[in-house]
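Researcher: Structure prediction, please.
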Amino acid sequence: MPDSVQRLLSRLSFRQLQVFLAVYQLRNYSKAGDQLGLTQPAVSSQVRQLEHALGHPVFEYVGRKLYCTAVGERLASCINIMFGELRSLQNELILMGSQVTGDLHISAVDTAHCVLPWLLPDFIKDHPGVQVHVRLVRRTEVLKRLQENVDHLAVMGMAPADRSLATLPFLDNELIPVVAPDHPVLACASPTIPQFLSAGLIVREEESGTRQALELWARQSRVSLEPVLQIDSNDGLKHAVMAGLGVTVLPRLTAISELNAGTLREVRLEGFPLRRSWCLGYLSEKQPTPAMKAFIDHIQTQIEPLETAFRNRGQLTF
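Model: Predicted structure follows.
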């Protein structure tokens, strides 16, 4: 190692780099101090020591706004690489240990509220050191959060054709046509697809996986869809149908209670149910954390038990 590099390393500390990165990300000395549990003077002192070791300023004020210098930008890039390698090392060391720990962030499409809870109890029981965080959002937000590395994993009903995304199908997702119990289409012995679609089709928003699956079926079947109403939630669709506003296609799992209660009726149509899969998705190039890997392994070993559990609990009807 060159003497100049050794001298630089002898003058730098990880604490200085950590403080610099906090100021760099927050663009504020006080906020960086709050994040790190330091006073503003302590943060300023660490930054001054760092600048002295480098021989260059890393921040500058223009007016009353804090900016990063070119040297600071280069330093931030190096620190991110260094800290990334240390995180990988930490993950590998944890994997070598006997217990998986850490945070696991999972986002899920809003329709997955009827699926995701069933995936967690055994995992949490087997991995008490893992803190699981779940967020239910729209499909576009799920994909965005994955791409921006906010969440480790995602649960969705129709995975996009994206090479950057690895998917693990784990449960059938049946999409079924439903109507109100007194709908005229039920008077037909064998309702046809045109009869159903012309009865006032209500659909989800365009980015919804349910909507995309329905439109894909329509293209493949050379059927024209002419929705009369668009609603951005499955609960909204169910209530609209029960109120007599029209008909719709829903994931069976989201309508089990209403089907069992008789407030919704499934229509037997040729080509239905549309069969898709609930999938676990994650970035294929992402280095899995121990908690992330443990959850993927858990789902892989639980595919058959999950299907059996959903059948036994009356969650699925075939």
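Model: The first helix runs from residue 3 to 11.
Researcher: Thanks, that helps.
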